[in-house]
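Please fill in the sequence for the structure shown.

STRUCTURE ENCODING:
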């Protein structure tokens, strides 16, 4: 089933050569008066190895930036950082999720909301160097109005046809968040078409925990941070994992299905961040609480076996060895899981077989890294190096690289 699932990075990474894991800060914020502050959301890497990300604050107007980090070239030892766009309020403020790249190298992302602006989806058009352009051009693709969503949240995802999918944390028909689609225009000068695919409400999950991911059939998967059942004396709604399936007839409603409901302490509560697939079609994610000791969990969802309809929830590990995981996880080709935990730092879960059971063993991805935890998802490059951001540490956040053994 290799290649069944769409990669947000657009390539398959290779395993790193044998060496000790090392942690390197590529850039520390802020390093100037107009520098960004508090990077967040998933980074994205282009085919030339350049990293792009957002800061939630800082910049000339103190409400966020988009930045580029270029790897060292001949004669250099450090990555070169450049602010490629600064938000000023009129064009959005405080970007909240990670960026995605289209096939032409243009960037897409979302900005947060304030009393006057419920949030928007934006495009940054790459400069055409052959035409003498030097600056990225920003274009607002859609502005929310609360009724169709408020506070776009999490990372966007783009399909092969250029459609964008994302979530809003609030707004919608029940003020509990939405999943939306933006369809590109036939002509570049045209208007993107917006569509709400689903509005959340308490019984089926509320307030998305992050963005959505795509499988090859065009189904969307995500999690909500709370909701999913009616409160009882023993159970409280602790979020859901859901699937949205495209309709057989174009233009009709997408089908929403809850795959699992988190409602008891042992199974985990309050999902955090995006989901991820392995090559067999299993889903992986984190809960920020629940599990024995209430330390949160790393979980796996196995798709239904032949003739079955229910997904199977497996708790892979819970604290105190890994406490309060935040954000999603990523997997390497050997099946190891990497992520971040608030009181642990970067972690690694390694699978081994004990009889018919898979045992997951936790270890630090990098020794003495507990201070770099953040809620953003990690990414791999083609050589198997990991990249991520912190919102604290030195100054006002960092971009880091981990070279794995």
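FILLED IN BY: designer on duty
SEQUENCE:
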């Amino acid at each position: 089933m290799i290649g069944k699932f769409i990669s947000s990075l657009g390539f398959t990474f290779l395993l790193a050569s044998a060496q000790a894991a090392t942690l390197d800060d590529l850039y520390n914020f802020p390093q100037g008066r107009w520098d960004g502050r508090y990077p967040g959301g998933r980074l994205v890497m282009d085919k030339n190895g350049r990293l792009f990300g957002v800061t939630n604050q800082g910049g000339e107007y103190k409400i966020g930036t988009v930045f580029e980090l270029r790897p060292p070239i001949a004669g250099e030892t450090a990555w070169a950082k450049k602010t490629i766009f600064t938000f000023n309020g009129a064009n959005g403020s405080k970007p909240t999720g990670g960026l995605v790249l289209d096939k032409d190298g243009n960037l897409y992302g979302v900005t947060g909301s304030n009393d006057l602006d419920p949030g928007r989806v934006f495009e940054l058009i790459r400069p055409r160097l052959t035409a003498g352009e030097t600056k990225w051009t920003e274009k607002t693709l859609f502005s929310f109005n609360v009724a169709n969503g408020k506070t776009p949240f999490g990372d966007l995802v783009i399909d092969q046809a250029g459609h964008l999918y994302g979530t809003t944390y609030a707004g919608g028909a029940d003020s509990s968040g939405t999943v939306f689609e933006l369809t590109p225009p036939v002509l570049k000068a045209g208007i993107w078409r917006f569509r709400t695919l689903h509005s959340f409400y308490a019984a089926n999950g509320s307030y998305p925990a992050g963005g959505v991911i795509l499988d090859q059939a065009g189904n969307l998967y995500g999690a909500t941070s709370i909701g999913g059942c009616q409160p009882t004396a023993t159970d409280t709604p602790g979020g859901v994992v859901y699937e949205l399936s495209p309709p057989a007839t174009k233009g009709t409603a997408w089908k929403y299905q809850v795959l699992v409901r988190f409602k008891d302490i042992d199974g985990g509560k309050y999902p955090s961040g995006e989901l991820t697939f392995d090559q067999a079609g299993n889903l992986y994610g984190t809960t920020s609480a629940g599990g024995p000791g209430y330390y949160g969990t790393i979980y796996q969802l196995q798709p239904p076996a032949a003739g079955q309809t229910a997904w199977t929830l497996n708790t892979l590990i819970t604290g105190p060895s890994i406490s309060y995981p935040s954000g999603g996880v990523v997997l390497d080709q050997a099946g190891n899981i990497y992520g971040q935990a608030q009181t642990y730092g970067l972690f690694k879960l390694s699978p081994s077989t004990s009889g018919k059971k898979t045992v997951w063993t936790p270890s630090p991805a990098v020794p003495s890294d507990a201070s770099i935890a953040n809620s953003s998802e990690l990414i791999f490059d083609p050589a198997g190096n990991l990249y991520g951001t912190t919102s604290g540490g030195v100054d006002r956040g960092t971009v880091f690289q981990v070279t794995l053994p």
